[in-house]
């Protein structure tokens, strides 16, 4: 009984963790809207409902909060893609260890799963603040971009290259496969980046469950259409 009680967090530490999570959630939105330089410490703390001393207390500095926000974003994304990435990655490692090739049908199935997961993840309301933060880091990369790229983006892109290479029957490291990978990923991310234009052109009031299923179907269609260029390898 005493050991179990000792293992439980104290009320003070539990409150501290709640406050920290509130700050990170607020910071993701504020930094996404105004950037690192444009976001003031007062804006950040007021959005989280904490006092000005909370930033140095929990994160050391505004810079520390910014990096922690990037890591918080990575963790949020990983809750959606981590298990899938681990499962597909383990299968690819098993094939490599056995000296076997990845079958095209299997590559298409995995790639469809990845793109449909991206649709569900990135067109929803929750990802608005994520997109703002990531787009700013794409335009003016900082240490935060390096961490997000190495921790989330690079592994997923390289997995996509492996699958697309199997479908195109080309080296995943080739320039052509790299470009096709970004082209395919962009075909999904465009629905977040050009959200307002999509709503206007599609005459949708919002992107709800019905629209998400439509876009998931489109993701599967894009994978079905993927193939070697005419006159390419047979």
From TrEMBL:
<dbReference type="Pfam" id="PF09209">
    <property type="entry name" value="CecR_C"/>
</dbReference>
<dbReference type="InterPro" id="IPR001647">
    <property type="entry name" value="HTH_TetR"/>
</dbReference>
<dbReference type="GO" id="GO:0000976">
    <property type="term" value="F:transcription cis-regulatory region binding"/>
</dbReference>
<dbReference type="InterPro" id="IPR036271">
    <property type="entry name" value="Tet_transcr_reg_TetR-rel_C_sf"/>
</dbReference>
<protein>
    <submittedName>
        <fullName>DUF1956 domain-containing protein</fullName>
    </submittedName>
</protein>
<dbReference type="Pfam" id="PF00440">
    <property type="entry name" value="TetR_N"/>
</dbReference>
<dbReference type="InterPro" id="IPR015292">
    <property type="entry name" value="Tscrpt_reg_YbiH_C"/>
</dbReference>
<dbReference type="GO" id="GO:0003700">
    <property type="term" value="F:DNA-binding transcription factor activity"/>
</dbReference>
<feature type="DNA-binding region" description="H-T-H motif">
    <location>
        <begin position="40"/>
        <end position="59"/>
    </location>
</feature>
<dbReference type="InterPro" id="IPR050109">
    <property type="entry name" value="HTH-type_TetR-like_transc_reg"/>
</dbReference>
<keyword id="KW-0238">DNA-binding</keyword>
<feature type="domain" description="HTH tetR-type">
    <location>
        <begin position="17"/>
        <end position="77"/>
    </location>
</feature>
<dbReference type="InterPro" id="IPR009057">
    <property type="entry name" value="Homeodomain-like_sf"/>
</dbReference>
